[in-house]
Amino acid sequence: MRRLLALTLLLGLTLAQGLVLPFEGPRGYALAQAFAQGLQAPPPTLLALLLPDLPWRGSYELAGGLYTRAGARLALSATGAGWVLLGRGEEGGLRLILATPTGAKEGLFRTPELAWLWLQGQGLAPRYAPLPPPSLPEERLRALAEGKDPDPLHQSALDLREGRGTGLLEGVLPKRLLLLWQGTLPPAYEAFRLLAEGKREEALKRAEALAQGDTLERTAAHLLYRALEDERWKESARSLAQAFPELPLAWEEVSFAAFAEGKGEEARDALLQALKLRPDYWLYWTNLGWAYYLTGDLPRAILASERAVRLNPNATAYYNLGLFRAIYGDFLGAKAAYDRALRLDEGEDFPEALKDLEGRQEPLTLYFRAYLAERVGLDAKPLYQAFLAQYPRHPLGPSARRALARLEKGGVGLEVLRLTLIPGDVDARPFRAGEAVFPEVRLTGSPYLQRGALETRLFRGGELLQGEKKDLGFPPLATGLVEVAPAVTLPEPGRYTLEVRYGEATALLPLEAGPPSLARRLYALGLEVRDLSGRALLSPKEALGEKGEELLLERTLEALKEAAPLATGSRLTAPLKAGPYAGKSVQQALQDPGLAGVRAFFEAVLANPELLAENDVVNAFVNWLLGLSENQP
């Protein structure tokens, strides 16, 4: 009777095509191999080579990691296995995670043998059979998992990854997994492929079909709604969390939906659920602090934000801490938090921090609104003045007055470092007609750089011909910056005045534009003219110099003439039907190309840079001639 039961279990496992993934830990491959042998599953080292990433950016990490209940369920869906087993070595022993179509279970066991007994109790492992020893040592298994010195089975896995068929893997691994590597994408992967190709409407239709599918498909549907900015994402988030409570991402998305709808309590509860699954994830603690703030629970808001910055110092959590402590009237605590936030902020987070302060009327929130505005380069004078008008006797009054005096003495500076054809390149003066001029400037600000536009204007005879602006981006506390101002184009030969403006600082430079230069125009496109040996015909200095076009034409003529004896093929000795050398062969054109023909060639290159981009000048010239001739009707 016992033999019959064991045989039935083994038969069931074979039909189910379960998978054991490599375990995490010092002996992870050997332990996983032992469990796979006992469960008659394929070698885990095959999965090290063939477990696919999930279709969205971030793969398993976005879902909280592979070695979690959520990760196990997603791996189950991605591979099409009947069950998936993962293991992770921890201080207390071995943690096993078992995913089946009905859900995921996990347990922590002091020894692998106890974990094996648990699998027997789950009806997965054959009863009364001991956990077998691994058939190969850890080092050999690790080598197989890395594709080194493969046996025939693992060579089949490597071949499959390269698109050379399933080999020995047919019937060993689940069909869905094999088909995926053969290019037959499951619906979730296909939907993200459509999104990557810009087929938004088709991707949205696929998302609608996926919304009632398995774990992977429902998660994919939600992420597609988010990426496509479809309002159904909020409903989808809540539905996903109910159907897939092991997924911390689902609870995180519920919190975002709640934040968007101003539901602080729901956001708080969702983040608490997410933290049960990822207790040390700094982002959840950061957002939980804000959720507590929205519910009016400032003490817990502060505690959650402090936990967030201990786990991972980040500007958002420190800005939140500054706000919470300012509301409490804790000047030193708020200042310390805001100062740390400003140092961590790369220029993306301060607008929200200022917006959060706008709706508050506590003395310190008014003060710190001005404090932040000053340090990020915004106009802080009216904010300090408003604070002093509302709280003239506040202890921070002297500090606000000193700040106003500092701002009155401050200012901005602008120095033009160079004028270039290509941003960040060498100075390209004197310029030629038709060229774009990029001013590279050094900006300074006291006490800090001011936020505003960097403007370039072009004048001729006092008349404004062109004007371009661009907004500056820089982190808080910046006092200096090297930046490329927007370009203006010199329309024709003549004399001009270039003006670069930043706030109250202005620089005026005289410019004289000469006639156009082929060499400089090619240089501005990033095209390098090379001979057959790959040697550049011009150095950058020569290309930009006064004789750049002359040298370009002369050296190109030489390179073409040197290549003429090599043009012996039938296509190269037949008469050309069209173009500047019509009636002559390519060989004859190379023997005596003439300046006019070479100039016409470079004009064609300027109209179609791909003609020269990856070619030497000889082959590009030949391809141009043949193209003109063979495309003639």
* Morphology: flat
Estimate the helix proportion, in percent.
40-55%
Strand order of the largest sheet: 1-2-3-4
Q: Total strand count, please?
A: 12
Distance between the termini: 86 Å
**CA radius of gyration:** 34 Å
The structural class is alpha+beta
Query: Largest sheet, described in full?
Result: 4 strands, mixed
Q: Outline the low-pLDDT stretches.
A: 1-15
- Averaged pLDDT: 94
* SS element count, helices: 31
Percent of residues in beta strands: 5-15%
Structure write-up:
- Pfam families: TPR_16.
- Keywords: TPR repeat.
- This is Tetratricopeptide repeat protein.
- InterPro entries: TPR-like_helical_dom_sf, TPR_rpt.
- Helix content is 52%, strand content 14%.
- It is built from 31 helices and 12 strands.
- The chain has a 4-stranded mixed β-sheet.
- α12 runs antiparallel to α13 (233-243), α16 packs parallel to α18 and α26 (548-563) packs across α29.
- The longest helix is centred in the C-terminal third of the chain and has 16 residues, at 548-563.
- The protein starts with a helix and ends with a helix.
- Residues 1-15 have low confidence and may be disordered.
